[in-house]
Structure formats: structure tokens, C-alpha cells
Amino acid sequence: MMRAGAKALELKKSEVDALNVFPVPDGDTGTNMNLTIQSAVTDAEKTSGGSVAEVAAAVSMGSLMGARGNSGVILSQLLRGVAKGVEGQKTVSALQIAQALQTGVDTAYKAVMKPVEGTILTVSREMAKGALARAKQGGDSVETLKEAYLKGQQTLAKTPDMLPTLKQAGVVDAGGQGFLYIIGGWISALEGHDQEEISASPIQQEIQSQGAPAGFLVVENLEFPYCTEFLVKGKNLNVDQIRQDLSDRGDSMLVVGTDEVVKIHIHVKNPGNILDYAIQFGSLHEVGIHNMLSQNEAMAHALKNKEKEAPLESTEQTPLAMGEQTLKEHGIVAVAMGQGIAEVLKSLGVDEVIFGGQTMNPSTEDLVEAVQKVPAKNVYILPNNGNIVMAANQVKDIITDKNVFIIPTKSIPQGISALVNYDPEGNPEENAQNMEMGLTQIQSGEVTYAVRDSQFGSLEINEGDILGLVEDVIQITGQEALQVAQAILEKMEWREHDLVTIFYGEETPQEEAEKLREWLESEIPSIEVELYPGNQPLYYYILGVE
């Protein structure tokens, strides 16, 4: 059933991506939801499938760890709530399915600080209502889900009336449409329709092949050389207690799960001791033990035989060396969408850069792994994209051996402003407060292009038009990137400020970017202009004014 839902969404993810409210090339709701549910399916397929509760618990954990973007996080919360609703059940009735959907909706609403109607939340809420009504009338599981699907379709069609931005763009809510595809897959499975075996989608293969630039450290000694990970299956498992018991037995620890399934990942000296400890709680599954010293030696040997230009230089220690390090007081994790931007962030003190952003949001698990790599007691996360903030907030619930602070940066300029206000010797809480204050001291602008015809407010937008945005709101359209950049800077009232920062994209010639700087300096000779090759995709310019 879960596999069928995931397959249904995978086949339609591009269509969901196309429902992006703004006609800029970052419509990734379908991609984010697809990656989230694929992660859920992967974990579900590792179970024995002996009960609905067991599968649902695995789905809950898999979707949590694989959640990407706002849409993926909300989907993970819907699935987490469904898992809560079927706890302890070997099989479920139509009424229990409907009640579990309602629990999923309640969980998702609680996860969003300011729920907005006309989104996946509204669609899922009305679906749950429809399911409950049909189940109480005596409908079976298929009839109950079909009623949910019908109510979802009806509600989805009304979402443009609830959100003016949807009506202006001429689309329905993307998240709601994605969730409908998943439920449609569930119905197909229950009706006995054949589904293809799930295989890696193109976007997953792309993720696996890209590999973010990173440093490589050859190590000769390692305090905790064995990477050990496995599942514990039992009853009444206490995740918090297990996490506390293992906290001083190694490093890079990750303990998440439910009261029936717990996933453990830890680097240790003696894997046997950890397995002996865990087996008291139930049965062990998917046990994997890797000698990281051997892996490191093999990687070093392979690198010697490759003549490749080194990517982004990295001065931070890798997880392989963390066992030998003394924890510093503060560390920073940031998201970047281009190598040039990453270099600037690192020069300002960022320890770990995660490559992602507009078209590929990093998952909660990606952020967790980055935080674990930073040898610091207090770690600040800069999402640098509004669509990553929710996934970042979930890291605080997973990491317990460090203090994690989420600085809600929604753009690269905001991230840089936060870093300028960072004090490596300051108090953690004051640091977080000062970094957030920095977000109010800068304006962010972007220049990109339209991927389809659309209308936004009074602006008629044609596919291929150059778009100028201020704080993610489309303000200007044009035909030349340089001219739009100049116009958007005027909208940002750059003449009233002291500093303009420019990151030019991978498709923007340096000569053109230099012309933009020359124009600024000719207009106001006293203005300070910082020009960087950001190498970011999709966006000709990212602009900051302060």
C-alpha cells in the first residue's frame, strides 16, 4: 500500500512541481514529497510486515529522517500521526483508517506554527472528515478512502479561492495535489491493481551521483573506528532512555524511533558491547558494522589514482577525526546553492556547508548529519531558504547531545548578515539573538527567469521573462538580467544604504556582473560594493542591500 502510494506520486512528481505558486524555477513540492515518501518506503520494506503498526512505525521514522522542504515535513507529520493512530494494531478496520487519518491531520496542524488554509493541511483535514463520515456509515476500507479522495478533490479545487496567490497563478495547492496522488495509490493497492516495483527515480540517482564538494582527511588512528547501525524491534521501547544510555559510549550517535522500532547509529570502539546492550530490549535487525579506518584507507588509495581537480577546499575535520577532537564552544552549519557562495560562508566561519536550496532542499537527516560533524557544544543552523526552515527545526528534536539553534534565515544575504553578528566567544543564547537581529538589517533580492506563463498581481508574466524579486516577492519583469538587476536594486532603495553585495550565477558572464558594479559605483562613488562569483544555478543574481 505504501509502495503504491509512493509510486503514484513518483509518476506525477513533475506535475506537482509545476504547480508552484511563483513561476520561478524552484517548484519542488513534488520532488520533496517524493523523496520523503521514498525514504518512508525504504524503511517500511526493512520490516517483516507482520502488522500494520510495525509498518506504520517504520514509515513514520523513515519519513521523518527523509523529510525535505516544508511539504516533505508536513507529509512526514501526517504519516507520523497515522502511525500513532494505528499503534498496537495488527490489522485495521475502515473506521480505524479514518481515525488514523484524523490523528495525522491533528499532528500536522500542531507541527505548523501558523497553519494556512488552502494548503495540504486543509485538503488533508477535509479528507479525514470525509473518511470518518463514510466509515461511520458502514463503508469498507476502499469506500472510506474513496470518499476521502473525493472530498480531497473537491477541497483542492477550492484552494485558489482560499489563497489569492494560487488564484493569480492559476494553480491549485501543490502539496494537497501530491497527497491526493498518494491516497490514490493506496486505493489502487487495496483494489488489487498491479504496481511496478519501485526503482530509483532520476532525481534520486542525481542526488547519489552529484556528491557535495567536501574535504578528505586521511587518518591513521581513530578513537571510535566502528560505524555501527541497526534496528531494535520490541515493545514499550524508551527512545529517550536508550539515547541517554548510549550517550557516553561513542560519537556521531543518532537514536530515533517509536516504542516498537528504534533506529540506532553510533561510532564505537567495540560494536559487540552495543549489540549486547540493545538485545535486551528485543530483536536486532539490519545490523551493519563498518571499519571506518579500512574505509578511509581504501578511499585514500582510490584518490591517489584519480587526477581530478579538488573541489571546494575544506578546513574542517571530517567525522572520521572527530573522536580525537576537543569540542569547541560554537559551530555553524549553513545551506548554500553554489560553490562560490559556500566559499564565502566558510570564510565567515561556517564549519559545514550543505549543498542545496531552491531545487533540492536538504532533508532533516542531511542537516542532522552535518550538525553531528561539527565538533562543538552549540551549533547554529542557517537554512538560508524559507523552504528549509521547517526541516531544520526538526533537528532540535533529534540531536540531544548538543545545543542546536535555528537561525531562520530565508536567503543567502540574510545568512551572511547573521554571520556578521556572530561572536565566536559569545554566550550561546545571546549569539542566537544577535544573529536573528541581523536578519532585520538587510534586504534580499534575486534575479531569475519564468518557467511558464503566469500572472502575479498586475504583472503579466510570459515563459522566459526575466524576473526580479524582493524578499521572495516578484516585483519586476524584463528581458535582460542586467537591466532587471538594476531595477530591482532601485526597488530595494540601494541609494539609501552603504553596502551592496552581489553574487552572480553560473550562467552570468563576469563581464556583465562587473558592469553592474561599475553602474553602482558611477551612480554613487561612496557606495561599497562586494562582488562574488556565487556559481549558483537558476538565479542570475542574488543581491543584498544593507
Task: Provide keyphrases for this structure.
546 residues, single chain, 6-stranded mixed sheet, 47% helix, alpha/beta, flat
Specify the number of helices. 20
Spatial order of the strands forming the largest sheet: 13-12-9-16-14-15
What's the shape? flat
List the uncertain runs: 196-220, 295-324
Quick overview of this protein structure:
The protein is of the alpha/beta class.
Could you describe the 3D structure shown?
- It contains 20 helices and 16 strands.
- By secondary structure, the protein is α/β, with parallel strands linked by helices.
- Strands 13-12-9-16-14-15 form a six-stranded mixed sheet, sandwiched between helices. The protein has a four-stranded antiparallel sheet with strand order 2-3-1-4, sandwiched between helices.
- Helix 5 packs antiparallel against helix 6 (120-136) and helix 6 runs antiparallel to helix 7.
- The chain is flat, with a radius of gyration of 24 Å.
- The model is unreliable at 196-220 and 295-324 (pLDDT under 50).
Helix and strand arrangement:
Blueprint lengths: L1 H16 L11 H16 L7 H15 L2 H17 L8 H18 L8 H17 L4 H22 L1 H6 L4 H17 L11 H9 L15 E9 L4 H8 L4 E7 L3 E8 L2 H8 L3 E10 H13 L23 E9 L2 H9 L4 E4 L8 H10 L2 E7 L6 H10 L4 E4 L5 H9 L7 H10 L5 E7 L4 E3 L2 E3 L4 E5 L2 E6 L2 H11 L7 E6 L5 H14 L4 E6 L7 E5 L1
Parallel strand pairs: 5-6, 5-7, 7-8, 14-15
Antiparallel strand pairs: 1-3, 1-4, 2-3, 9-12, 9-16, 10-11, 12-13, 14-16
Helix pairs in contact: 1-2, 1-9, 2-3, 2-4, 3-4, 4-5, 5-6, 5-7, 6-7, 6-9, 7-9, 15-16, 17-18
